[in-house]
Every structure is written in C-alpha cells, then in structure tokens.
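Complex record, two chains
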Amino acid sequence: MKLRRSERMVVISNYLINNPYKLTSLNTFATKYEAAKSSISEDIAIIKKAFEESNIGEIETLTGASGGVIFTPSISEEEARAIVQDLCQRLSENNRILPGGYIYLSDLLSTPKILQNIGRIIANAFKGQKIDAVMTVATKGVPLANAVANILNVPFVIVRRDLKITEGSTVSVNYASASSDRIEKMFLSKRSLRPNSRVLIVDDFLKGGGTITGMISLLSEFDSHLVGVAVFAENAKEEREDMIYKSLLKVSEIDVKNNKVVVEVGNIFND
Amino acid sequence: MKLRRSERMVVISNYLINNPYKLTSLNTFATKYEAAKSSISEDIAIIKKAFEESNIGEIETLTGASGGVIFTPSISEEEARAIVQDLCQRLSENNRILPGGYIYLSDLLSTPKILQNIGRIIANAFKGQKIDAVMTVATKGVPLANAVANILNVPFVIVRRDLKITEGSTVSVNYASASSDRIEKMFLSKRSLRPNSRVLIVDDFLKGGGTITGMISLLSEFDSHLVGVAVFAENAKEEREDMIYKSLLKVSEIDVKNNKVVVEVGNIFND
C-alpha cells in the first residue's frame, strides 16, 4: 500500500500505539508502505518528537540487523496527578458508602477511559523494569490487570478464589482473608504462568494485605519473581503486614454515620 | 503547545485512537495546538484518508456549532477473517482439552493483542447500532466485555454468580445452568446499569445458552434493551434455546479420547 508521507506517519503512529513494547524492524514498514527505509527512518524521527513533546511515550530506535523501533507509553506526572485528583473526588462522593463500610468502586473500574488512564499510571510507575505478566485476583482486579497489561503488552494472569473446571490443573495456596477473618484458599491454573516469570501484582483495594500476600506465595510456587505491587486504593486505617506497594488513592476515613469518605492521593508519586 | 503540522497530525491521531466514538470539536485541537481551525480541518482530512485507506476506522466531521470530529474504529473483513482463522488454529491445538471435555481458553482471553482484535471484530459486527453498555458474566467474560467496551468507549457491566458485599443492592434472576443441570441465581448491582440502556451481551463460550438467557431477563429487570449477543466460541453440538447471536468460532467436535478439537469459523461473517 503506497501512502503519502503524512498519511504514512498517521498509520505508523497507529501501529506503534497499538503495539507498545514490541520491536518492529523498519523494513516491515518499508515493505508494507512501499517506501525507502531512509524515509521510514525520517517518519519515525518526526513521530518520536511528537510523542515525546506530548508525553505520549518514548520511541527507541535500535540499529543493526536485529534492530528496529520500540514504543514505550508514558504519562507526564502533571497528567497523572490530574487524573488521580479527579479519581479522589469521584471516590469521595458520599453515595459510595455501602452497608458495612465498603466503598462502591465498580463504576470506576468498568469505564474504559478511566481504566486506560489507571493502566498508564501504574505501568509508568514500573517503567524500565522487565515485566512478563500482570497478576490479579478475580473478579474486581481483572479489569485493572487487563488495563495495565494492555499498556505493557504482556498477558495477565487471574488467580481465583474458587476452583473452576475450565482452568485445568491448578496450584493452590492458603491466605488469611481480612474480610472473613478466616484462612481461605486461592487457585491458579498451572498453565497460566511460565516458570521464571517476572510478575507485577495489581489489585483494586488493599485492606489487610492477605490477598496480596497469598498471590506472592503463589509466585514462588510457580518459580516466578515479584516485580512490585500496585493497588487502585488502599485503606489507610488498616493494620497491614510489612509490604511494599504503590497506591493511586488512599482512603483515610469512611464515616458510615455521616455518609462521608475522605480520600487522598496514594503513595504512587512518592520518591 | 505549538507543533509542526506533521507532529500535530501524529498527536491528533493518537487522541482519536484513544477516544473512539467521542465527539471532539475542532476548536479543542485548535486551542491546544495553537493552530487555525482551518489547519486542524486539513489535518483531520489527511488523518481521515489514512485511517480509511488502512481500514483503521472512519472519521466523521459534523459541522455547525455543536460540530466536531468522531472516530469510529473498524476492521476490514480480510483482516478480521485472518485473525479468526488464526484463532481457529490456536483453539485446535490438542493440548487444550481438559478432563470433562472442556477447552482451555484462558491463555487466549488474557493476551491483550488477541483481546484487542476480538474486541475490534465484535464491535465492528454491531457498527451503526447505538450501544450504551456491554454486559457479561464473571469471571471469564470480563476481559472480553472489557475489550469490546474499549472499542465502543462505553462502560461494561459484570453480572455475578455470587453475592458480593462490595456491590451494594443487587437484582437477581434465576437461570438454568447447563453445566450443573440446576437452576442457579445471577446478580447484578442495582447501580451498575441505568434504565433504558441499550446493551450488547458478550460471553466467552456458548453451550446451552442458559447464562445468556439469564442476562437477557436481567435486562428487562433494569428496563433495558438487548442490542445483540456475541460469543467468542460456541459449541456446535449443543441443543440450544432459540437465540440470535454472533460467534467468532464454532467448536464442532471435542474428541477427548483422541485429544482432538475441531474448530471452524463461527457465524459472525454471515448475514
């Protein structure tokens, strides 16, 4: 397909945006758009400048026989902070308090634009670290893990609290559930994670940390390694095992009687 | 932020790709990139041509005070067929058969690139129809619904088979579960779907159809309307209530003894 330069740049931009973290040789574009490799190289230089000036992401060009171009999405701290501030406000809406002092989050975690932004912020917080898979626990964590995995262009892995016949053989571990005050089991399909994977754990809401501790112990069952933990929101009041994690939001008060939630920015922008 | 024309086109393309189905006024771009509205208009014309020639999608320009530009993602039948053919082959791999004659799908439904492509194909099959939300049932359907919702830029709604305290008030219906041969319950949080929504139902695997019939009856409890049903794969052998749906794949044989699965293209390209 032969395109004009300006059209070619639009189409190559689209490709890079939809294929983050993937190395693509310039020859692939040259062949596809019937252009000289040097022209493609110039196109990439312009796209790189535009992406970097607008904080869409970075483009790296590797030279040599196995060379090519890789797009790494990013987000400016300014944009990320504005998104998190907006989420703080949305989470503080007084109609979110449920009986038992829980907070209704499902609307936020099922809106593509919000998920995409959360994914960009979390992925950016672990930029430069090799990540092979994103792990979460069903059901609430799934869209979050999916969003982060979309940006990193790696598979996500869903740990379950129940045994499903459609998962085949599973490995299980016990964990201490804060919400039920009991020891529960969690399961991961044997084929869902390769040994020696480097894994980012993502979850929606961090309370006691039992679920995340459970997932970390699953990692060792799969001879895999923890890169980090990121949560959408944490409960500031909760006693928690010693754990390193990044949070977008910190819920510092849930006042059921007065129907009030106090939400602050989490620790994701620290250091 | 002032950019050169070529850079501006790259940045506007990125915006449109990440904001499908959203009307954005040309003034928004003109202000943001300090350019004349007429220049933005020319940029859009080039992007439109590039997107259409490469089957990335359509760009519609609405004139007048409330006018602007809307990007609708699409996919060529050629590309869609190639993707579905590839999925046919992946599903036919003989190591997918699980005890009980189930097929392991989780790896496909947790790979972002595959999900994105499935989302594009399903969304494209319902193009031109007004859709307010995508509905599915936990857990396997979630990444699929998420993928379709990403393309349509609408929220997705997760029906559950168990009651969760973090969902607040729920509405429940009974459904006939083919896998357990029993009447089961499914639940949907009251606040997750607005009345009069037009809903696309998505699921991973269609057997007896009980789950989907259940979701359809939930729709009427929410005074909402069914736009259509799309499934990743259907079991061709299964007796099924009279139901209209689109399927990407059709599993016509699962031979547990010889470890063989026969998979064909579903009905999504018929019409």
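Note: Chain A touches chain B through 62 residues (CB under 8 Å).
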